[in-house]
């Protein structure tokens, strides 16, 4: 009767309350009180998670997650901490609409809405998640310089920033292969690539450890190619990088789906298993990355696009005011994994440079200074 007492015109609730509507209406009629109208609609369900409060409470109380705001949870506090914007959530809800039929919405749709939103307003930064050392052998020792980088190509009003460059750099380990396959347009022995915003470099040598793993790559740079100008030469690959002398250490938390099954509650009931048995052991990966120094000035909740990687957010819980590395929750990687590409014979030539495994597609990730 609280709806009637408070003067609620329309009481909106999910479909399980439909059976109670006759009693709801009868009480108001018999008591002669203000008539509120009850309208039922289907609840919003997302793949690879559970929406039941009872199940979510178990996840928290049994320490399967760190709390109600754990970025793998479907709660508003968790989505906010992971970097989802209110605009992206509203956009998804508008696309899904309100209906009376129970449906399950792909989590990928929410991620798509977030990408569209952040692409327009998230500043770009360069960070290396899996570093491989590069030495520019013909660059003067002890010298450094700065290059101008665009903050957001979608919004010229966001201006530019400077990125420091030095003799020793770090690139993504996936951006180098000693024996590359066809259509691998990144760094390899004898191959020239463009360092984003900087120079053209050519790989001349590699250094390996006792196990034969490449631990260092030696390159030469073209002094006439400042800003990545190829001077008419055809250079297909452009890779991001970070200066060894200036990089800020960064703790990066990579989040994947909390459950291995797209419908964990249904799958558990059909197989007579507990839904917690379907929790993915790989839903969280914590790594230490290296980022350009501009990220050291980020504030909690700031969102960025790491060039060629994905979207990341400075953690609103674990961010510390001391200089160092931010904590980010990507909105999952946008780059290709060549190990995954080569394992699939059905991948087309065009997709080979852009395809990623599912866990590296695109949502937000959190950053924490270390």
Automatic annotation (TrEMBL):
One of its GO terms (cellular component) is cytosol. Keywords: Aminoacyl-tRNA synthetase, ATP-binding, Cytoplasm, Ligase, Nucleotide-binding, Protein biosynthesis. Residues 2-119 form the Glutamyl/glutaminyl-tRNA synthetase class Ib catalytic domain. Pfam families: tRNA-synt_1c, tRNA-synt_1c_C, tRNA-synt_1c_C2. Residues 122-222 form the Glutamyl/glutaminyl-tRNA synthetase class Ib anti-codon binding domain. It comes from the Eukaryota. Signal peptide: none annotated. One of its GO terms (biological process) is glutaminyl-tRNA aminoacylation. One of its GO terms (molecular function) is ATP binding. Residues 238-315 form the tRNA synthetases class I (E and Q) anti-codon binding domain. Belongs to the class-I aminoacyl-tRNA synthetase family. This is Glutamine--tRNA ligase. It comes from Geodia barretti (Barrett's horny sponge).
């Amino acid at each position: 009767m609280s709806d009637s007492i408070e003067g609620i015109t329309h009481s909106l609730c999910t479909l399980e309350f439909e059976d109670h509507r006759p009693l709801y209406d009868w009480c108001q009629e018999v008591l002669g009180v203000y008539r509120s109208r009850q309208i039922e609609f289907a609840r919003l369900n997302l793949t690879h998670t559970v929406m039941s409060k009872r199940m979510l409470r178990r996840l928290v109380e049994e320490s399967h997650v760190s709390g109600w705001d754990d970025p793998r949870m479907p709660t508003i506090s968790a989505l906010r901490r992971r970097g989802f914007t209110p605009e992206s959530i509203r956009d998804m809800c508008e696309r899904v609409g309100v209906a009376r039929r129970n449906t399950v919405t792909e989590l990928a749709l929410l991620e798509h809405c977030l990408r569209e939103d952040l692409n327009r307003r998230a500043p770009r930064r360069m960070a290396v998640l899996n570093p491989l050392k590069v030495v520019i052998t013909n660059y003067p020792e002890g010298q450094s310089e700065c290059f101008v980088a665009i903050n957001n190509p979608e919004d010229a009003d966001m201006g530019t920033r400077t990125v420091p460059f030095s003799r020793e750099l770090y690139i993504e380990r996936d951006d180098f292969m000693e024996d590359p396959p066809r259509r691998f347009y990144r760094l390899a022995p004898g191959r020239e690539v463009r360092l984003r915003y900087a120079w053209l470099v050519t790989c001349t040598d590699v250094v390996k450890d006792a196990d034969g793993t490449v631990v260092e790559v030696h390159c030469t740079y073209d002094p006439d190619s400042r800003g990545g100008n190829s001077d008419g030469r055809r250079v297909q690959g452009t890779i991001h990088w970070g200066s060894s002398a200036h990089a800020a250490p960064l703790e990066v938390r990579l989040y994947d789906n909390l459950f291995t099954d797209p419908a964990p509650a249904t799958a558990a009931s059909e197989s007579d298993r507990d839904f917690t048995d379907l929790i993915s052991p790989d839903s969280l990966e914590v790594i230490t990355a290296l980022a350009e120094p501009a990220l050291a000035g980020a504030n909690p909740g700031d969102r960025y696009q790491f060039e060629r990687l994905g979207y990341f957010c400075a953690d609103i819980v674990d961010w510390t005011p001391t200089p160092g590395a931010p904590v980010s929750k990507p909105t999952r990687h946008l780059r290709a994994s060549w190990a995954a590409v080569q394992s699939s014979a059905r991948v087309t030539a065009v997709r080979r440079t852009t395809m990623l495994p599912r866990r590296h597609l695109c949502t937000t990730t959190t950053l924490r200074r270390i």
